[in-house]
Amino acid sequence: MKVLVTVKEVAEVADDFEIEGTEVGERYLEYDLNEWDDYAVEEAVQLKEEGPVEEVVTVTIGPERSEETIRMALAKGADRAVRVWDDALEDADLLDVETKTNLLEAVVEEEDPDLVLTGVQSGDDNFGATGVSLADEIGFQWGAVVNALDYDHDAGVAHVHRELEGGVEELTDIELPAVLTIQTGINEPRYASLRGIRQAQSKEIATKSLDDVGLDAGAIESDLTMTAMYEPESESDAEIFEGDAGETAERLAEVLREKGVAE
Amino acid sequence: MSDVLAVAEHRRGELRDVSYELLTAGRQVADATGGDLHVAVVSGDTEAFADNLNREGVDYVHTVGDGEEFDHDVYVQAVEALHAEIDPQVLVMPNSVNGLDYAPAVANRLDLPLATDAVGIEYDGGLTVTREMYGSKVETTVEVGGDQQAVTIRGAEWPAAEGVGDAEIAPFDVGIDDEGGATVTGFEEVGGGDVDISEADFIVSIGRGIEEEENLPLIEDLVEASDATLASSRPIVDNGWLPKNRQVGQSGKVVTPEVYLAIGISGAVQHVAGMKGADTIVAVNTDPNAPIFDIADYGIVGDLFEVVPELIEEFE
Ligand SMILES: Cc1cc2nc3c(=O)[nH]c(=O)nc-3n(C[C@H](O)[C@H](O)[C@H](O)COP(=O)(O)OP(=O)(O)OC[C@H]3O[C@@H](n4cnc5c(N)ncnc54)[C@H](O)[C@@H]3O)c2cc1C
Predict the structure, then answer these.
(1) Whose Cα sits closest to atom 22 in ligand 1?
(2) What is the pLDDT of residues A88-139, one digit of tens each?
(3) Residue B192 lies in a domain
(4) B9-22 mean pLDDT
(5) Which of A11, A136, A162 sits opposite B105 (nearest CB)?
């Protein structure tokens, strides 16, 4: 049995930053493995350690820079990686759900996995839609926002919990092949061990262009165009206490006493 | 092709708030396109739901009676069939957990461009949505092309529709093909236990700014000195540092204390959903641009490791 895990490198924005056109200036960005994907990788690696899964393959849509992040996933136990990128993608400022679906579909066709794990969303553009869109495209079953997974190999069924709002979970049985979008908290993602990091250096990252996965430029034509990016107008009318830690703490203590919640 | 189709959401016999917000958002778009507002309600007691959804501005309510609770196979087929029937300009769905379980499949099947988690929608000959990025630190406007479009809206961004409308309510027969493969077997309540943070008057809530589990006693000391109730954002619970019943937010508890003191919490929308009803909100955060300050009444831009010890001293 094979598991394919989507791994995205996401940008985090520094406390102070500037917007240049429809992007945050490159120097204010720090790149990391998407938080939700970290849990998806861990879940896949645990399934391998528990037995039923023979191979864990990661797939990333991203430029060469993202290989650092991909190595992180390999160091945590994924067996090999596929990275799709193309000059044609470089110029797009927004990869919409349809584009990502098309690219991932091409990789699924090649890899033929039994289970695909994605994060619930990515921390940068938070579309939260790629996994379920992909499932529909490739004819797999699916479950979104999964925070518990118990896989019954003999029956080929994933017993999952879907985390709904308000502290309620939905219990669902999903037949494989399936795509599950993984929620944080489902497990405890491991830190890469030194040995893992060393081993990751010799694991394969296969780089594929559009042509390599059998797509043409039409597959990445996006109907979504970002026309502006700006800092939201602060609706804040918060009173910010000035001064050093002692002074601000004193003001805060006064407020708490005034409100009668602390003495 | 100028109509709008909005899909309502319900759970365990009740329409969820976002359903009424969808009516407002849907009406707003329909006014701009000059079309009718159609509302779909799928599964459960659709007749009772339809009566509730018949609010001002709604032209049609279509009921699809198959099934009781949410099932994505039923929703996808129902919305697909209604879309073919109504041929709307814009399809509007909720950006809820269940919304995320069917909206992307519907958009893919109908080949509609999809913009999720919209906080604003404009229609002026074409569709433009406002979305946030990077944990609400920036806002973007996105033009959504294509002949017809699909959008999911964030909860609590539009006011609920009110009043009573004169919508035509009619059952719609889909002939659901039970594709099977995903079967809901039940529900489970989580986050119970000995403490109920939703009853507290004064909450001290800690977020990822605390960095390490070893630092938690600092906050516990503050809680004890000020006689507060301890709560947290999600990552603290995900890490297993506090039990689930301490989590505030969309997937945790909704709290309405007199004072909510958020320490090292950025103010992500899913967190804010659980605490925006507090009378007074105070934030301590090193990042002056953290979204939590947008909803705070008082704030300290500073390092919690410097501010909290001083605050403890105030109450000792
Ligand atoms: C479906 C779904 C459901 C979710 N449900 C919930 C939910 O119920 N509750 C919830 O909370 N989240 C929920 N989330 C997660 C949410 O999106 C955020 O990831 C989370 O709220 C972030 O928590 P945080 O603010 O503690 O961490 P971060 O966003 O990482 O913020 C940490 C903050 O600490 C500040 N900081 C760092 N160091 C210091 C210091 N020394 N002193 C002071 N400040 C400091 C930083 O400036 C930053 O603002 C959900 C997400 C999804 C997708």
Answers:
(1) B268
(2) 998 777 899 999 999 999 999 999 999 999 999 999 999 999 999 999 999 9
(3) no
(4) 97
(5) A136
B264-284 pLDDT, tens digit each = 999 999 999 999 999 999 999
pLDDT in tens, B115-140: 999 999 999 999 999 999 999 999 99
Contact A83, A208 (CB under 8 A): yes
B310 and A263: CB-CB below 8 Å?
no
User: What residue of A is the nearest CA neighbor of B244?
Assistant: A167
What domains can be seen in chain A, in order of their start residue? 2-220 (3.40.50.620), 233-263 (no CATH)
How many beta-carbon contacts under 8 Å exist across A and B?
A: 274
Neighbours of B295 (CB within 10 A): 18
Residue of B nearest to A172 (CA): B184
Range of the domain at B150: 2-171
B166 and B201 in a single domain? The answer is no
Statement to judge: residues B53 and B137 lie in one domain: yes
**Residues B164, B212 within the same domain:** no
Look at residues B171, B187, B208 and tell me which one is the last residue of a structural domain.
Answer: B171
Residue nearest to atom 26 of ligand 1 (CA): B207
Write the CATH number for B262: 3.40.50.1220
Domain total for chain B? 2
Phi/psi of residue A179, nearest 5 degrees: -115, 125
Burial of B110 (0-12, 13-18, 19+ CB in 10 A): middle
Token pair recorded at residue B248:
């505030």
Comparing A132-136, B3-7, B176-180, B212-216, the range with the smallest average pLDDT is: B176-180
Query: Of A42, A34, A36, A186, which Cα lies nearest the Cα of B244?
Result: A186
Residues B49 and B55: their CA atoms lie apart, in Å, by: 11
- Which of A244, A261, A263 is the mutation pick for testing B, counting most B CBs within 10 A? A261
Q: Is residue B186 part of a domain?
A: no
ipTM over 0.90: yes
